[in-house]
Amino acid sequence: MSGSPNLDEALERLPKVELHCHVEGTMRATTVAELARANGVALPVADPTELYRYDSLTGFLEVFWLVQSVLATRDDWARLGYESAVDGAAHGLAYRESFFTPARHLAAGQRLGDVVAGLDEGLAAAEAETGVVVRLILDFDRDFGARAAEEQVDALVELRRAGAPGAERVIGVGYDSTEIGQEPGWYAEAFGRAGAAGLRRTAHQGEDSGPAAIAACVDLLGAERIDHGLSILADHDVTQRFVDEQIALTVCPSSNIRIANAFPTLADHVYPEMRSRGLLATLNTDDPSLTDLDLGLEYRNVATAFGWGWDQMVDIALDGVEACWLDPAAKAALRARTEAAREALRPGSRPQVGSDALRPDGPT
């Protein structure tokens, strides 16, 4: 390779961690259409991308649930897992902790063991092919209520106890879907059971709720991260607590524009203020296939919108490493790989061909 990469090329190749990405939201439009035909799901349009325009979080959820509905078999989940990881790796993904939300499938008669085993099969194939590493987070759909969440935790714990295929890949739990009309405390039992079983905990909060609800996720649910957390800056004390304790926020700026319509443009997003205040605010895509996005593009969009240079973007990537749930040794290895890439890929310098920083190997 001759010459040196420009900023866009370097950001594409930079090894990146993603902590807020829904595996169902990575489904290729062609896969949506093919699985819909195979499983008898009627789509209102021939091209699913025609549906990918949203006026609110509620409007997005309707499309998300439709996309979810095409997943009917273990093989479908395997295909989704494989394509999700392969597509991520093509844009610099090194490690991902990916959500899956099975409540609607379980209510329709699918078994959690089949969902987990299918995802594990596909992800393992993609890992072997690309070197990317993916772990899973079981997300409770708040639309189904607290009792369903408790049942899902119990089922997951039993799968792990039995050594079921893929169960050890599921390292944590969270919750998502609508925030309106919901209280974090309703889910304290489910999160408590998860914590007692050694599972990590995170929570979607702060898109349609205030800072008090964000704090409640930490206090009542034991959440170690908050997904989105957009409203946190409205409360100085909550913000300072998150700064002092370095409780991570998994922020998805482009999603907040395209899905939640929370800001008029990306340039209006609060992400720069989050970081300037000292919050551990990571960068993620949320539902990339449903928003015409990928992780490399998200990094490029943010760099352009806020006028940030290479070192600032590498620092963001390192914060993703800091906030992830890898064990200390694997985290240190991924941090070293990212720091090596800082120099190997630095725009304006000659790339170090063959450098470990450019290898696809993921953390162990």
Polypeptide structure, described:
The chain has about 375 residues and is of the alpha/beta class. The protein has helices spanning about 5-15, 30-40, 55-70, 75-90, 105, 110-130, 145-160, 190-195, 210-220, 235-245, 255-260, 270-275, 295-305, 310-325, 330-345, and strands at about 15-20, 95-100, 135-140, 170-175, 200-205, 225-230, 250, 280-285. An eight-stranded parallel β-sheet has the order 1-2-3-4-5-6-7-8, with helices on both faces. Strand 4, helix 8 (about 190-195) and strand 5 form a beta-alpha-beta unit.
Write the layout of secondary structure elements.
Elements: H1 7-13, E1 16-18, H2 29-39, H3 57-68, H4 74-89, E2 93-100, H5 103-107, H6 112-130, E3 133-141, H7 145-162, E4 170-176, H8 188-196, E5 200-205, H9 211-221, E6 225-228, H10 236-245, E7 248-251, H11 253-258, H12 271-276, E8 281-283, H13 295-306, H14 310-323, H15 328-344
Parallel strand pairs: 1-2, 2-3, 3-4, 4-5, 5-6, 6-7, 7-8
CATH superfamily: Metal-dependent hydrolases
Whole-number total of structural domains: 1
Quote the average pLDDT. 94
The N- to C-terminal Cα distance equals: 28 Å
> So what's the CATH class?
Alpha Beta
Which sheet architecture does the biggest sheet show? Answer: 8 strands, parallel
CATH topology tier name: TIM Barrel
CA radius of gyration: 19 Å
> What is the percent of helical residues?
40-55%
Strand percent estimate: 5-15%
